[in-house]
Amino acid sequence: MANNKKEGPINLLITDALCRLINSNKKYNDITIEDIIKEAHICRKSFYRTFKTKDEILEVKFKDICSKIDNYFATNCSHTFSGLVYSIFTVAKDNKDYILCFYKANQTLYFGNIVQTLINSKIFKEEKQNDPTNYYFYISKVWMVVGILSSWLNHDCDVAIEDIVRMIKSYQIVRQ
Question: For the whole model, what pTM was predicted?
Fold first, then answer.
């Protein structure tokens, strides 16, 4: 039997239901699977065929968003750190409601997934291979990108992506 956790209408119903519950100011830890099932108007069996836990809902959606970032980066941008940042912000803007929902629900998972996506990027691997001493410099830029992204999404994407990329590109750490 095929595993269809990444696609399909049940997945979308469940993900949207979880986001509605979170956006209704119900604390993530207080949301039960039963709450999600009721909000999604599905049966328990449908939920458990698709997900095992509510954390998995967030993880699967983040993987989907990360896959979209990778695809955008591979087909639309120069393969530079600036291109990666542009890809992240472009896809994040298109998925803003989900990302903000997950940010509100579980910041540990949110930050961990975004940072891991950047660290797993081809650009990062090339930087580390070319100059291992650049690792910490790159990590500082990764955390800066994540912080700016979070703030930018919370401020309704109020600055053009190109301006964000220029600002991040100009960021420098004085190394001694």
Answer: 0.80
